[in-house]
Amino acid sequence: MPPRPSDRWHRPRHRNRRLWIPLLISGFVVALASLESSAPVLRRANALGRRCSPDHFASPASSSGGDILRPRIAIVSFSDDREGLAASRGGGRPRRSFRGVMETVEGNKRAYAAGMGYDFIDAKGLVDRSRPPNWSKILAVRSHLPYYDWVFWNDADTVVMNPAIELENILIAVIGHSDFHASPDLVVTEDFNGVNSGVFFVRRSAWSESFLDTWWNLTSFIRFDSTKSGDNAAMEHLIGRLPPEESRVHVGVAPMQCLFNSYPWFPTWKSVYRLIFSPWTTWQGAYSDGDFMVHLAGLDDKRRWAAKFLQQMRTI
Ligand SMILES: *[C@@H]1O[C@H](CO)[C@@H](O)[C@H](O)[C@H]1NC(C)=O
Ligand SMILES: *[C@@H]1O[C@H](CO)[C@@H](O)[C@H](O)[C@H]1NC(C)=O
User: Fold this and answer.
1) Segment 109-131, tens digit of pLDDT
2) CA of 51 to the centre of ligand 2 (A)
3) Is 228 inside a domain boundary?
C-alpha cells in the first residue's frame, strides 16, 4: 500500500533533522583532527615539495671565486632581559619572556658565524633605555654598518636550524644575481602582518644609513605594550611610504618567508584561523625541517622553545 503523501514528505524531513546534530558534531571532530594533523604536515612542507632552499631561486655563489670577493657580513643581535621583567610588573609571571634566550642561542649563532667566516656581535651595550628594547636594533645595526658590507639583524629569539646554508646564497636568492653592488639595500621577509622587522639584511650604503635614521626618528610609533613596541609598525610604515621606484630599487622582499625567517606552527585559534583564511602565507612561512632559521615570534617562554629547537637541530 503506498504511503500517504504526508508520510512521504514528513518522515524523511523529520529524520534529517535528527541527523543534523550528529553530522555537525562529527564534521567538527573531523575538522579538528585534520587541523591537529596539519602541524606535522607543515613541518614536512619541504619534503612535500615546498621550495625554500636558496638554490631553488638563483644559482648559488661559487665558492671558487675566492675570499676576496666575499662580502664582509656581521650577524648582529641582542636580548634585553628587562623586557620580560617590564611585562611582569604588576605581578604575575612575565608574559613574553626573553630571559635566558641569548645565552641559549648564542653558541648556535657563534658556531654558525665562525664556520662561515662571518662576525657575530652581541650589541647589548647599545640599548637605549628610553624606548622599548626592540627599538635599539636600529642603533645596533646602524653602529656596525660602517664596518661591514652587510649586517644581518637577528632578534634574539631565532635559531640557525640549517647551518649549511650561506647568507650570500640567501641574498642571491632574493636579489636574483650575485652582484652585491647592484643590490637592494634592505632585504626583508613578509608574514601575515606585512614586513617583519625581526630578521633582515641591511647593505652598507648612504640609502641604508638614511633609512635607519629615519626609522629611528619615527618616535610617534613607540608603544609600551607587552607585545607591541612599535618598531615593526614604523618599519612597515616607512617602506609603505616609499615611492614605487625607490622601493623597487632599494627594498628586496624574499619570495618565500621560509628563506630566512620561518615561524613554528602550532594549532592555536589564531594559527588555525590564518591557515583557513591565508593558507598560502601559512604554507610559505611555517617552519619545516631544512629551513635556514626558525623565529619564535609570538611565543612565550622563549628560552624553553629555543632550547627545544636547538635539541632538535642536533638530532636532524
Ligand atoms: C632624525 O632626528 C634628528 C634629531 O631630531 C635630526 O638631527 C636628524 O636629521 C633626523 N634624521 C633623519 C634622517 O630624519
Ligand atoms: C620584540 O621582538 C620580539 C621578536 O620579534 C617579539 O616577539 C616581541 O614581541 C617584541 N617585543 C615587543 C615588546 O614588541
Assistant:
1) 999 999 999 999 999 888 898 99
2) 28
3) yes
